[in-house]
Amino acid sequence: MRENRLRTLWKSGGAAVNGWLAIPNSFASETMAHQDWDSLTVDMQHGVVDYQAMVTMLQAISTTDTVPVVRVPWLEPGILMKTLDAGAYAVICPMVNTREDAQKLVAWTSYAPRGTRSFGPVRALLYGGADYPQHANDTIVRFAMIETAQALDNLDEILSVEGLDAVYIGPSDLSLSLGCTPTMDDLEPKAAQAVDHILARAKAHKVVAGIHNMSAESALARIAKGFQYVTVSSDARLIAAGAQQVMAKMRAGKTTPPASGY
Fold this sequence. Notes:
This protein is an alpha/beta fold. It has a single domain (about 5-240), classed as TIM Barrel (Alpha-Beta Barrel). It contains 13 helices and 8 strands. It has helices spanning about 5-10, 25-35, 50-60, 75-85, 100-110, 125-130, 130-140, 150-155, 155-160, 170-175, 190-205, 215-225, 235-255, and strands at about 15-20, 40-45, 65-70, 90-95, 140-145, 165-170, 210-215, 230. An 8-stranded parallel barrel has the order 1-2-3-4-5-6-7-8, surrounded by 7 helices. The chain starts with a helix and ends in a 9-residue tail after the last helix. The relative contact order is 0.13.
């Protein structure tokens, strides 16, 4: 079976740099995949990506060694199973708030006897290899999103669930849940303390900690703290930022042509 390079990287103590895909287009995804990201996450929770677009985006990512990841819309068995059947090598699940939620995530993404995932890895066989069914349980990465006050209260119980590989912090939702302004990088003190607490407890449980970032500077600072999975911006935001830079230079450098006269 094809290796999951996230697991290999983490085992060596490294940190993975993840890109975020919000544009439902295979060429955009292919272009991003050729920029040397360790992984790329197709976002099905927020934005405009549907299941069929996700499949074509995973196919595009497969032109490289970049690990295909999907953030599913919710903790629901059908979409988790279909996402893995499509060839995702990791799933990020929103709003995991209790130990029971984490147990469901692991069960629904694992074949028996470990879990209750239904068998039908149609595209996963093409991507992972003919022996996918024998190795999928130990190859797939399962992220639980920690983004509420309730999840903080249940954090150690969540982190103790066998088979949960990683947690992923949504700074904006976490901030909102704690009564702070939603943002990703410059967090208010209460939210920043919560992020540090999640990281510390994840390390104690030997669970990988990941987090969303707006800037490379923030992502690098969080790697230095011990995060092993950092997302930087998104394809849509990177396009907008690049276009803004070009247009700012053009507007600043463009001179008004002299008025014509007789």
